[in-house]
Amino acid sequence: RSGWEGRFMHRGFLIVVSGRCGFRQRRLNLALDFMKNILLLVITLITLNCGKPNKSDSSSSNIIHLDSSDSIIKSLKDTTKIVYKISPQLEVIPLESEDIEDNIFYTWVTFLSESKILWSENDSTRSVAFRVLITTSEIYNYIYIEKITYGEEGFGKRIEYRSRLNTIIFSDKFKITGEFTGVKFSNWISYNSFIFTIDNKRFELTILNQNEAQILLCDS
Q: Using CA atoms, how far apart are residues 216 and 212, in angstroms rounded to an integer?
C-alpha cells in the first residue's frame, strides 16, 4: 500500500502538481488576455477621442479667442486715438529770401534776438549764429530770420542771408485763423532753433537752410 500509495502519491503529486500548474497557467493567460483587451479598448477610445474635436472645448476656445481678438483690436483703436491726439504736428514751411544787397532797413521792428554762436574749430569754416526779428505793420506781424557769420576770433561779422517766414502757408498748415498777429518770441533752444507763440499755440522753429524752416507744434 505504501508503495502504491507512494506511487499514487507520486503520480498524484505529479498529476496534482501538473493539474495545479496547468490551472494557474490558464488563469494567468486569461488574465493577460483580459488585460490585453482592456488595453486595446483604452487605446482605441483614446484614439477615437483624439480624432474627434470636442465641441464644447472648441466653442469655448473660439469664444475666448474672439473675445481676446476683439479686446486687442479695441485696445489698438484706443491706442491709435491716444497717439493721434498726442502726436505733434511737424511741417516744413518755406522761407522767402530777401536780397541783402539792397541794404533793406526794417521798419517797426518790435523784437530782435540773436542766438548763441556756434563756434567753428575749423579755420576754413566761419562761426555761425542766427537772428530773429519780429516786425509789426499796422496789426500784422512778420518773422525774419538772418544768418550771421563770424570770422576768426569773432571778427568780420556779417549777414550771410535774410529770409522771411511764409505766414500764409504757415497759417494754412497749422490752422491759424484770422490775422497773423500777436507773435511773441519765447526763447532759444539752440543756435538755430527757438520757441515762439501765436494764437495761444507754442511752436518750435528750426532753421534748415535759407529757404526752409521746420516747425513743430508743441502744444495748443
A: 13
